[in-house]
Amino acid sequence: MAISLALIIILGLGADYLFKRLQLPGLIGMLMVGVLVGPYVLNFMSPEMMKVSGDFRKIALIVILLRAGFELRRDALNRVGRAAVIMSAVPAVFEIGGVMLVAPKLLHITYLEAAILGSILGAVSPAVVVPLMIDFMDRGRGAKKAIPTMILGASSLDDVFVIVLFTVFLGMYGGEQTNIYMMLGAIPVSIVLGIIVGIIPGYFLYHLFKKYDWRSPKRTMLVMGVAIVLTWLEAVCEEYVPVASLLGVMAIGFIILEKSEPIAHIISQKLKKLWIFAELLLFVLVGAQVNIHVAWEAGLAGALVIFVGLIFRSVGTYISLIGTPFDWKEKLFCVVAYIPKATVQAAIGAVPLAAGVASGEVILAVAVLSILLTAPIGAIGIMIFGEKILDYGELSAYRFKELRNKLELPHVGERVREKQSGSIWKVVEEKEMWMEPSSVAGGSDDPPRMIPAICIRYWGEEISKNSGKDKILTFKYSQNGPSFQEHWEILYDW
Question: What domains does the chain contain, in order, with CATH numbers?
Answer without folding.
Answer: 2-389 (1.20.1530.20), 398-491 (no CATH)
